[in-house]
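Q: Hi! First time doing this. I have a protein sequence and I read that you can turn it into a structure. Is that right? Here it is:
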Amino acid sequence: MATRYRSRRARLAALSDSLRAQGQTWAQIATRIAREEHVNMRVGFRLAHGMSQREVAARWNEEFPTETGSASMADKVISYWETWPQSGYEPSVQLHQPDLAEAALTDALRQNLSVRRRGSVLTDLAILGAQRRDLDRMITYADAVVEMVRQTGSGVIARKLTGLQSHLALFSNDVRVRDLNSRIATLAGNVTGA
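A: Yes, that's right. Below is the predicted 3D structure, encoded as structure tokens:
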């Protein structure tokens, strides 16, 4: 006979505990929960950890306190991030949580995004690659955005892509990075100068 749980949260906590005991990663657990509960990966990660939006915001405020000691994160912002890109706000790559940002961004790529939004997401993924010092990932995502700007001539995407350039200085010894930086500068000049 199947075990009955008092709530969805209790059921998911038991599932998460069981899967962790079997050696599964948080990403694997979040993927399963997202699939079975028909939620996106951001919600899947939160549910895998057994947390409410309010608990996530409280934990954020403990980990990243403001200078004044006031709360910098509210549960409503967590809700906005979880509903993006259909509504809400795009999670930032500056969140101090690269795994969460990457999950949000890769999940967004599975959505039907506008060209501008897709360019923004790919650029943020390239920035995450730079932050993790994963040159191959950074260059792969950046190349996709460069091609997107070439095809569309979008100044919005080109300006977003120039935000990657500040992250490239750390890798200036790599010929691929120097080439990428040059292509970004050329594209940005062509699009904004047109």
